[in-house]
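Summary for the steering committee. The consortium agreed at its last meeting that each partner would contribute one worked example illustrating the joint modelling workflow. Our contribution is presented below. We chose a case with several input lines so that the handling of multiple components could be demonstrated. No manual editing was applied between input and output; the record is shown as generated.
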Amino acid sequence: MYDSEETKQIRLERRSPFHWRVTFDLPPLNIFGPANMPQLNAIVAAIETDARLKVVVFDSAVEGFFLTHYDFLAKPEDSSSLPPGPTGLQQLPDLLVRLSRAPVVSITSIRGRATGVGSELALASDMRFASREKAILSQWEVGAALVPGGGPMARLPRLMGRGRALEVLLGADDIDGDLAERYGYVNRSFPDAELDAFVDALAERIASFDKKAIAETKRLVNVASLPADSEIAPEWDAFIASLARPAAQERIKLLMERGFHKPGDVETRLGYHVGQLGG
Amino acid sequence: MYDSEETKQIRLERRSPFHWRVTFDLPPLNIFGPANMPQLNAIVAAIETDARLKVVVFDSAVEGFFLTHYDFLAKPEDSSSLPPGPTGLQQLPDLLVRLSRAPVVSITSIRGRATGVGSELALASDMRFASREKAILSQWEVGAALVPGGGPMARLPRLMGRGRALEVLLGADDIDGDLAERYGYVNRSFPDAELDAFVDALAERIASFDKKAIAETKRLVNVASLPADSEIAPEWDAFIASLARPAAQERIKLLMERGFHKPGDVETRLGYHVGQLGG
Amino acid sequence: MYDSEETKQIRLERRSPFHWRVTFDLPPLNIFGPANMPQLNAIVAAIETDARLKVVVFDSAVEGFFLTHYDFLAKPEDSSSLPPGPTGLQQLPDLLVRLSRAPVVSITSIRGRATGVGSELALASDMRFASREKAILSQWEVGAALVPGGGPMARLPRLMGRGRALEVLLGADDIDGDLAERYGYVNRSFPDAELDAFVDALAERIASFDKKAIAETKRLVNVASLPADSEIAPEWDAFIASLARPAAQERIKLLMERGFHKPGDVETRLGYHVGQLGG
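What follows is the complete predicted structure of the assembly.
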């Protein structure tokens, strides 16, 4: 059922005028690349401008993957040629900072891997809840000689402190739902069977509140907590530059030989595999 | 025993020249309003200027309530006509920032509800300890179409990170002692039977230390951790503005019909009730 | 075996060109003073400038002590006469900020007491892991009428929030491995039998990654998380000034009478003893 290009998409469901659901349905791995940027960008624009929307939940329809790493099969020029967004930032960081600032509450419900882009989207959203058994978060990039590009160096230390942020980023390993909660990588982890009920109830609750009170309160929290765009900007440039270096090309090639970008052990245990590429 | 206006007060007990206790005794609910502002202001002024005082503990004499929400039966002009304090901020944020900066250690011992103002006082104090079974913290205001006014948008993200702060503020729900500890809303929660002994021992310990070393160390921590007053100021203005809007008036009216400001289920489960007011 | 001055040292072991180990071997207590500054300074300079090094682990060879407090038997002028370091800061804060900024990952493996200087070194390093049973962290200085001098007022609130930082600094008590993890004082605590294997594996893993990706990622985290040197500078000055005051001289004298600077109960339960010196 997941084999047609046409069915691959980021789905937007309007549960009510106040409560939307965005579902990543890019089987088999929920890999995100330049081809998916326009669709996510359009969704963020709709979130930003809708007059009645109060809360949006991001989740996944793909077993095992919330949203995983960037698409390394895409041509590099497909990434580097994307025009900057309205903030002046490159497209991915642009749409992420716009989500953080939107006058709407964004909640990520993480089941499966949130690796790289998936982690970055979760970090840019307002709240993160995870399946204790099935969520895996990671910033794996340093393990492939890459610098992460979507804001985690600016956002992780503000959530969990410098020490744990450096462990996530420089250890580049898989973080399970339990450790993600202890580190503050997510708000809370729930037994998998309870996650959906919790997130649905919270979203419906917020959807019942007053939009202006939500938006003003969030705006004041943003003043106290969001990094400046100037702190986000260098990350994407560093990612693109790192991608062109021989060290990254060599490691990505080794990962490809192991089965990267195909269903299998590399994708489900990426943290383990980047630790096997040698010095 | 709690029915006379004359017995309602904020009591200041000097346990020693070095260690004071401030007890909220405003039965039956420890609601805080413009009428209580001068008394708390005088206490903060005494804390700021006493030459020997080293530590002050805030607690409650009212079963079930540490210090709860603002008094919505008070006339709005009683709040809006209060003169600004010495910092130039409005009275409530003014006395809270002065408490944070005072050369004295402030500890809140939370048993019962610390909702709205009670949470804001706790957040402005230097340390917070809670009864695991009996403490409830919340910023319930968004649930009534209000914007909180006493600094939590500036203070919560610095304590617990942006995601958990947004959940507290936009979920507007009751947070128990266990979750308050996991989120860093309080330093620690203790079994109710152990809370007083811990807080007393810590306060006595600090009272035995050197005032100058305490004051200098706290001052340097403040440099690293306190929000600027300019970040606090807009919160009170946003609260007063939100209070005048029809959405808040309607929700407060609905809460009143359910029993707000009277002993009973609305006051003891305010988080639940603001979730029942509809969209 | 630990009685010769010649064996007292800070040992540097090059496990590989990419992975070094620095071991505090200053028996019997791993007390750190002005005499040890040049050696640690030389090690930090080597860490900063080595072209191939990726990760350095700090640990201890002395049972019961990771690295403990400053040497109060040293002449005060030995501390105050040390020339400032390359950053313009005094020697101890200088070498600590240089460690934080070095393009190399620093990990502290804490077994035994990390009190005062030991805690400050741990806080300046990139990641901290502790023995659940055997680690004790503390900033005990306020208990002796001193102001800590090596950066903890700037660093602790950024790791654990203002409230818990003030409890550590103004409570001045011993913090065990379990509480250190709950507060974010360390990344994680492990059962003592598992600590070394975890730290070794993490260090070897990072040593297998690309140095440039490590260094760039850390540099971007630093932008988001390190205090400015101007925030660190006043702490050392405040420490030196506090050391000269009668209140500190009296308390250090009382501690000496109890056995400070000698193996025994004062050194192993310093938090308890500073609470017994009276008001």
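The first strand of chain C starts at residue 9 and ends at 16. The CA atoms of residues 108 and 122 of chain C lie 6 Å apart.
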